[in-house]
Amino acid sequence: MQENNTQQKKLSKTTTEDILITFPYHQMGVPISVPLVSIVNCTPLYRIYRKKTDLFCFEYILSGTQYIVEDKKYKVSSGDCYIIYGNRKHLYYADKNDPPKKICICAYGNLISELLKAYGITQTVFHKSNVLPIFEDLISFAQQQPDYYSFCHRTAIAIHKLIDAISNDTEKSTFIPQYIVEAKNIIDKSAEKKLNLEAVCKQVGISKSQLIKGFKKYYKKTPYNYLVDIKIQTAKILLVNTNSTVKEIAYSLKFPDEYYFSNLFKKKVGVSPSRYNISSKE
Question: For residue range 64-98, what is the model confidence (pLDDT) as tens digits?
Fold first, then answer.
């Protein structure tokens, strides 16, 4: 709590907030904790330094310029999105001649790390990323003054959408063959479907062997294992955010049965679906 108060004191001297919504840190019974969402106008003195914490920040630059220092120095400006990762030492500060206005989402939770890992996201800056509507939708929801638990659930879904969109933007900028990107986009939308590789291959115009080889090369896993990871991440969200039973979730995600789903979930996550649901609310 002291860290939160200190951070707010620093922010009050170096920003003016169009919108500032804060919550207590580390609340129980939610998929992630969300201490802060805001739209801030940074002054030329804006400067944030953090040693390793478990805080993640997803931010979008509306105007102006900012610098981020981690293992290297990054420059971000209007239209850029970036992630400040938990457990990394980092510094970010305003361009004194062109301080930024930005949207910030700050959150805690293992779910964020697991989503980033599932999508293979490790980089910090995403230039001209098409994610502004996701930020705006969450800010709009926050302005309705929802209860904290509803807001955390909505934020978890927004962060999932952000990571998915960033993943797609990253693929376009790293020269992954278009047919592999198209196949991945189809599979990304298939959490509630059975995977039919032949149908996917027909849609994108490649052979089954080309698809499997491409996924192994660019995503380090087979299309089937990639979809399983997406289904498991979706199951986590459903377990925490809905009243669905394990059997109903297994059915909705097209697993053969609840026992197969439970065993696979425990293998991937380390605990059973029921235990995961209980632990998230303790």
Answer: 999 999 878 899 999 999 999 888 888 999 999 99
Do 145 and 33 share a structural domain?
Answer: yes
Q: What is the CATH number of the domain that holds 60?
A: 2.60.120.280
* Mean per-residue pLDDT, 122-141: 89
Pairing of strands 73-77, 81-84: unpaired
Nearest to 84 by CA among 115, 136, 49, 118: 49
Residue 225 belongs to some domain of the structure: yes
Contacts of 203 (CB under 8 A, 6+ apart): 182, 183, 186
The pLDDT of residue 116 is above 90: no
Residue 32: Cβ within 10 Å count: 20
Asked if the model's pLDDT at residue 9 lies above 50, the reply is no
Report the domain count for the chain.
2
Distance linking the first and last C-alpha atoms of the chain: 20
- pLDDT: is 221 or 24 the higher one? 221
pLDDT score of 207: 93
CA distance 253 to 249: 6
DSSP code at position 247: H
The CB density around residue 175, as the number of other CB atoms within 10 Å, is 8
Q: How far is CA 78 from the centre of its chain?
A: 20
What pTM, to 2 d.p., does this model score? 0.61
Last residue of a domain, one of 163, 193, 217: 163
In this structure, which amino acid lies at residue 10?
K
